[in-house]
Structures are given as C-alpha cells and as structure tokens.
Design goal:
Umud Fragment, subunit A, 3 helices, single chain
Amino acid sequence: MGWFGESLESIRSIRFRLVISQAVSLGMIVASALIIWKGLIFVTGSESPVVVVLSGSMEPGFKRGDILFLYMRKDTIRTGDIVVFNVDGREIPIVHRVIKIHQRQDTGEVDVLTKGDNNSGDDRALYAHGQLWLQQHHIMGRAVGFLPYVGWVTITLTEKPIIKYLLIGALGLLVITSKE
C-alpha cells in the first residue's frame, strides 16, 4: 500500500475519531440540559419550572417576553399569588393573579379564580366550558422570580420559524466544519 496509502488511512481514522468525539460532546450537552431540567422539576415541584410570559395581560408587573420561575409549594394558594395554570382544551399555560379563593366544604380543597392585572374581567371566559373555578390540578406553579426580556428569544424563534431554521442550520454547519 505504501506510504501514501498508510497516510490516507491515518487521516480517515483521525477524522472518524473527530466525528465520534463531536457526537459524544453533543450528546453530553443534551444529556446535561435534560438532567438540569429534570432536577429543576424535582426541586421546584412544578411540571414546568420556567415559563415565558406570552401576552400583555399581566402588565405592568410582567411584560411580554419576561421569564418566570415557578415553585409549587404544598400549602394553600392565597389571594394575590401569581400562578401559572393549564386550562382543559388549551395547550399554552396562562400566567394570572389569584383574585378569589373558594374552599369546598365537602373535601376542604381550595378552588381559585384568576384575572390578568391588565384585564378588565376575571378569567372565567378562558376556562373550559362550564368551569367557574380552577382546581389544584390545573395549577402548574407560583411565580417566585423573573428575568425581564430574556424570553424574547423563545418568542422570536416560535413566531418566526425561519430564524429558528437558519440558526439550527448555522449551528449544524459550525459543528460539521469545526476542526476540534
């Protein structure tokens, strides 16, 4: 095979090792992100410990694009708490303030009524048909902190998918063409 053939085989072996090394590094990054996310779910007790405010219904307190950090304590929810909840039939969670509490006499469970700070009326129009109160299983968590404007990245990538595809393509090209 000669010197040239051995050199070519050596280069192929190095390139294969480099590709495997990059794939393992990418896998480690994805696995680390997943572990961090699952750890946050465990620590906060919320199925979604971080959410992005998608509308102006909570202004001036929270603006569109703010990121909220959620925590789900086991004690009862109080009037004035800002909660994130899912409504049956809707995929996107809603961030609003608790304005009224109703404790059921038979079970002792607490039902809540919510309202956006910037809205004129309560949220009963947003709830499922015939639903007047939110139960505990609808609530994903309470807001315990926020980062202003950081969520605009998520909003932009969701509302303008071409930017998302360009970014993914650029990152993929960078991974393919990088030397190390």
